[in-house]
């Protein structure tokens, strides 16, 4: 089944100890959509300005991503984010955020998108996440991600959004910030008590936890020797996770667990180069190979 993704489409300026890129393709919805496109058909809902390079649109289309829900705002400027990483790849420092065309974005969904069964609300203003969700008729599985910016700027709206979703994804620092709990087990339990059936806490190079009232699961991250640019790791994780599930015939515990590993594997490829460069080169058989290696590295 197809996956509806809403989130940011951005031009990112990023500096890491290994180099830098200026106004490169980025955005939560882009990383998530491209990662998910290895498993299922993706419908993207977002907005860009007229300044958004056409070559990026061509790349997304070539990945089979449906762009009927991507508005190109006349005279508008695309969302821009500027960030920096020091030696710790888990700590992104935001230098600048320019919402631009996202400030007043009220999308009209193509009619068939309203029937989406799988929805991923990638990191964006939680009011927009709720706005989209209200327009989907009977979704089967909805996941939502966020970031420190929205937790502090729009806490109330985010609280409202997560009540309506099945899965809430965050990284460890965001889970602590959102819940006020320093301990991640307590933080995950608190998130689940607020509404979502599942809380997923990503711990960067230290793996991920999945918590529900019924089962718990934890995985290490795939070992990556060359982490060049962590930007989009969380989004490609979520895209891989939701893309895999959208293609499963059953939402069983086993499939949730496998999806978590697929998410981790997609994120591991993404961090090996700047922007979308690594995911651009990726082939399905690379994913299968890394899945097998992951299994070998984590079983006794
Ligand atoms: P991640 O590294 O997975 O947490 O996400 C990085 C992506 O999030 C970048 O490509 C940015 O363009 C995007 N981003 C940064 N800040 C925001 C924000 N406030 N709202 C939406 N997307 C953002």
In short:
The protein is 37% helix and 26% strand.
Textual characterization of the structure:
The chain has 300 residues and is an alpha/beta fold. The strands form two sheets. It has a nine-stranded mixed sheet, sandwiched between helices. It has eleven helices and 13 strands. It is 37% helix and 26% strand. The model has no long low-confidence stretch (mean pLDDT 96). It binds adenosine monophosphate. Adenosine monophosphate binds next to strand 2 and helix 8.
Record field, number of beta strands? 13
Main sheet record: 9 strands, mixed
| Computed CA radius of gyration, to the nearest angstrom | 17 Å
Number of helices: 11
Ligand inventory reads:
adenosine monophosphate
Q: What structural category arises from helix and sheet content?
A: alpha/beta
SSE order = EEEHEHEEEEHEHHEHHEEEHHHH
- State the distance separating the first and last CA atoms: 35 Å
User: Beta-sheet strand percentage?
Assistant: 25-35%
Task: State the low-pLDDT regions, or none.
Answer: none
Round the mean pLDDT to the nearest integer and report it.
96
Strand order of the largest sheet: 5-4-1-8-9-10-11-12-13
How much helix is in the residues?
25-40%
User: What's the shape?
Assistant: globular
Q: Which features does this protein show?
A:
13 strands; nine-stranded mixed sheet; four-stranded mixed sheet; 11 helices; 300 residues; alpha/beta; 37% helix; binds adenosine monophosphate
Secondary-structure blueprint:
Elements: E1 3-6, E2 10-16, E3 19-26, H1 28-36, E4 42-49, H2 54-62, E5 65-73, E6 79-85, E7 92-98, E8 118-121, H3 126-134, E9 141-145, H4 148-153, H5 155-163, E10 167-171, H6 172-179, H7 184-193, E11 198-202, E12 208-212, E13 216-219, H8 233-246, H9 253-270, H10 277-281, H11 284-298
Parallel strand pairs: 1-4, 1-8, 2-6, 4-5, 8-9, 9-10, 10-11
Antiparallel strand pairs: 2-3, 6-7, 11-12, 12-13
The structure holds adenosine monophosphate (AMP).
Adenosine monophosphate binds at residues 8, 10, 12, 26-28, 81, 97, 123-124, 147, 149, 231-235.
């Amino acid at each position: 089944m197809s996956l509806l993704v809403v989130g940011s489409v951005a031009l990112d300026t990023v500096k890491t100890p290994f180099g830098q890129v200026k106004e490169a393709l980025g955005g939560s919805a882009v990383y998530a959509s491209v990662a998910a496109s290895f498993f299922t058909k993706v419908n993207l809902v977002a907005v860009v300005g007229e300044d958004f390079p056409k070559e990026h649109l061509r790349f997304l289309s070539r990945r089979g991503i449906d762009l009927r829900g991507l508005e190109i705002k006349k005279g508008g400027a695309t969302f821009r984010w500027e960030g920096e990483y020091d030696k710790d790849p888990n700590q992104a420092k935001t230098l600048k955020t320019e919402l631009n065309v996202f400030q007043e974005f009220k999308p009209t969904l193509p009619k068939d998108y309203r029937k989406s069964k799988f929805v991923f609300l990638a990191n964006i203003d939680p009011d927009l996440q709720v706005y989209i969700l209200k327009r989907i008729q009977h979704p089967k599985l909805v996941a939502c991600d966020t970031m420190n910016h929205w937790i502090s700027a729009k806490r109330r709206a985010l609280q409202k959004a997560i009540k309506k979703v099945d899965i809430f994804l965050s990284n460890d620092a965001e889970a602590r910030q959102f819940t006020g709990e320093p301990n991640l087990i307590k933080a995950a339990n608190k998130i689940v008590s607020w509404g979502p059936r599942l809380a997923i806490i990503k711990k960067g190079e230290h793996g991920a936890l999945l918590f529900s009232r019924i089962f718990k699961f934890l995985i290490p991250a795939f070992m990556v020797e060359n982490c060049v640019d962590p930007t989009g790791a969380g989004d490609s994780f979520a895209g891989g996770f939701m893309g895999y599930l959208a293609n499963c015939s059953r939402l069983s515990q086993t499939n949730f667990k496998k999806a978590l590993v697929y998410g981790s594997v997609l994120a591991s490829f993404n961090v090996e180069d700047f922007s979308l460069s690594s995911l651009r080169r990726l082939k399905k058989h690379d994913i299968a190979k890394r899945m097998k290696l992951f299994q070998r590295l984590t079983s006794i």
